[in-house]
Amino acid sequence: MERRTLGSVGEVSVLTLGGGGLGQVWGPTTRQEAVATVREAVDAGIDLIDVAPGYGDGEAERVVGEAFAGKLPAGVRVSTKCGLGNPDPFDVPAFLEKSLDDSLTRMRISFADVFLLHNHVTAEAEPGAPWATPVSLFVEAVRPALEDLVRRGRIGSWGITAVADTAAVTEVLGAAPTPAAAQCVANLLDSAGELAPAQSDTRPAETLAAARRHGVGVMGIRAVQAGALTYGIDRELPPEHPIMADFHRAEPFRALAREFGESAASLAHRYALSMPEVDTVVLGVKDRAELRECVAAAAAGRLRPDEMATIRAAVGSGG
Q1: Where are the beta strands (DSSP E) in the chain?
Q2: Which residue(s) pair with 310 in the sheet?
Q3: Are 166 and 202 in contact (CB under 8 A)?
Q4: For the chain, which ranges sit under pLDDT 50?
Q5: How far apart, in whole angstroms, are the C-alpha atoms of residue 62 and residue 41?
Q6: Structural domains of the chain ordered from first start
Q7: Considering the entire predicted model, what is its pTM?
């Protein structure tokens, strides 16, 4: 499998196995199937596994623990996350470390290669919004605590979720010490869907460009925009949901995929893999069939610039 350099993390496979599918965020699966998917991903050459406590209330991390019984195969690395919110600055170090400890316990390992803030970084505090961490708190307490975890050998490096509030995220991406990696929306719709809070200033393409400009490794997420860039949503969503709006917008893309002679999901993954800013694409697969489709998409190689332009034109996207 092709490998690319993920910032200071170093070389990784161009595909990363994400934990959302393993934790049944993207539709139902079984523990047995999830474990088999993890093992097959590693056999296929995927050497980075990205999980989080929030994926199935720790289920994705438990799947990793069961898959390898506490001993990761040679060369395989893991990243996990912490949903912090906006606590008192004094409490941040202990909060982060407890989250890390709990994640490592579920995975049956003692070290995380990458530890990411699983919150939106925002310009200002958002009252009653546990998904938001203001830049001021990040600078004062979060970044120093993450750096301390690196110094003490608890983690190899740290990163951020770089989705909402492009201006705030760009500020963090450009200030030293910079994140080793950022999880950025990377899809042909240039859409974060429901990940972007209402009225937030979210510009995925600009965030990708900022990460590249500052030498931050990019873990591309939402390649199929939570199912909007596939042939059908695999879970119940209300008609007014942002993903459903993206699904309808993507209808011309599905027709184009048929002309290309491949599935919509495959073509969407190839598009994300062909974006010059993206170092590795985080997969949301929940079973081996979905995994195999993505591995085949990676093996098919990058799309040509003219193909990229044709695909963008189909959905009216500049992303």
Answers
A1: 3-5, 11-13, 15-18, 48-50, 77-82, 112-122, 132-134, 155-162, 181-185, 217-221, 280-283
A2: none
A3: yes
A4: none
A5: 16
A6: 3-315 (3.20.20.100)
A7: 0.95
